[in-house]
Amino acid sequence: MSKQRQQQNFVHQVIGHHPESNPKLTAVKRSGKGIAPVNIALSKYWGKRDEVLNLPMNGSVSISLPGLGTETTIQIAQAGQDSVRLNGKLLEPSNPFVKRLSHFLNPFRTATVFFDVVTTNTVPTAAGLASSASGYAALVLALDDLFAWQLASQQLSLLARLGSGSASRSLFSGFSIWHMGRQADGMDSFAEPIDTPWPGLCVGLVKVDVAQKPISSTLGMQNTVNNCDLYQAWPKQAEKDMAKILQAIQQQDFNLLGQTAEHNALSMHATMMATWPPIVYWQPESVAAMQTVWQLREQGIAVYFTMDAGPNLKLLFPETEKPAIKQAFPELSIIEPFKTKR
Ligand code: PMV
């Protein structure tokens, strides 16, 4: 079966679309709208076991950042092609962002239907701040609104996963868990919220570079899975770390959370660096920021970091440490996921 066909079957299964008995691909409104937050994985997803259905080698746990994310509207286009406006700018049809989005939309239409998509990010695109996660989650919510499917969050998560794995976790606020799933059809690989708030938890964004990343996460994962001997150890560690993060959340044990998240991120980056050709997202300023974090810890300050497929660091610390952290990182943007209004 072709890749396109497989994705189409998956989408139709999730939305319950049967062309004759239960058509689900007719726009019910003039336009649909969706808003979703970015999320930061505390225990990360790196590596696909199925590239067509975006099925991960391991589960992951994340925290969503309220106020940072994507707002998207979608409507049926009058013109004979898709149009995408990103942050106020109409993109060329040849732009890779447009191509990826159009490809994602294919299972949701017949050959003669095109979409106008208007999407606004409050995070820089492809800066390692996971704008693709909030982007595909917002797009799926906009489709759900346009077609009036009223899908449950589990179904929305399955659809968002197809756009970007981490998008499966961006349908929720607070902590989320993305189950790796075992089924070949991908129907058991979705995210759901973890209903435990952590009021004093802070996330700090250390912006090292917001330019486009040198290698996409999809390509990076593919190279790591295929060309890195150390990768074999990754899925096992990821599962163990995930259990520790869940325990830390239940017990509100900050040191366990921070230690596990930092170790998990560094282990993921170690597999990237041990790939040939090597994948290094870090910049000198990333390492300098890590050293500052380690110095702060030596001084008894509770702070840890995590990093995704980019040079920026995300700090984790309890609110009691805010003054010390602000002094060490004067430019830091601080988000309080359980206090900031969503
Ligand atoms: O969902 P993707 O393809 O953008 O991959 C995300 C990969 C990491 O951000 C590095 C880890 C994660 O779990 O979010």
Question: What does this entry show, briefly?
Answer:
By secondary structure, this protein is an alpha+beta fold. It is 35% helix and 22% strand. It starts with a helix and ends in a 7-residue tail after the last strand.
Structural features, described:
The protein is α+β, with helices and mostly antiparallel strands and about 350 residues long. The chain has 2 domains: about 5-195, Ribosomal Protein S5, domain 2, CATH 3.30.230.10; about 200-335, 2-Layer Sandwich (Alpha-Beta Plaits). Helices cover about 35% and strands about 20% of the residues. The chain is built from 9 helices and 13 strands. The chain has helices at about 5-15, 95-105, 130-145, 155-165, 215-225, 235-250, 255-275, 285-300, 320-330; strands spanning about 30-45, 50, 55, 60-75, 85, 90, 115-120, 175-180, 190-195, 200-205, 305, 315-320, 335. Strands 1, 4, 5, 6, 7, 8 and 9 form a 7-stranded mixed β-sheet that branches. It has a 4-stranded antiparallel β-sheet with strand order 11-12-10-13. Strand 5 and strand 6 form a beta hairpin. The structure holds (3R)-3-hydroxy-3-methyl-5-(phosphonooxy)pentanoic acid. (3R)-3-hydroxy-3-methyl-5-(phosphonooxy)pentanoic acid binds near residues 44, 165 and 308.
SSE layout:
Layout: H1 3-15, E1 31-43, E2 48-50, E3 55-56, E4 60-76, E5 83-86, E6 89-90, H2 96-105, E7 115-121, H3 131-146, H4 153-163, E8 175-178, E9 191-194, E10 201-206, H5 217-227, H6 234-251, H7 254-273, H8 284-298, E11 304-306, E12 313-318, H9 322-328, E13 333-335
Parallel strand pairs: 5-7
Antiparallel strand pairs: 1-4, 2-3, 4-7, 4-8, 5-6, 8-9, 10-12, 10-13, 11-12
Helix pairs in contact: 1-4, 3-4, 6-7
The chain binds (3R)-3-hydroxy-3-methyl-5-(phosphonooxy)pentanoic acid.
